[in-house]
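TL;DR need structure tokens for one chain.
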Amino acid sequence: MNAPSGFSYTSRDGTVVIRHHGRVATTLRGPRAAEFLDEVGSDPQLVMARWTGNYRRGNERTARNHPRNQR
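>> reply
TL;DR here they are.
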């Protein structure tokens, strides 16, 4: 599994805008923005991927090959 990349964020006036490859992925305000800023110090790319929902879980191939997904 590849590490997430291409994320950036800007914080201003209690609002956080997270971008992925230059396009707005999500906007956080209030307590959610504060929680994000507290967490972002550890591994920024992974944290931003998690907060935007834009990350792979590693089971896509398994799910695609499952019998109920065959049509």
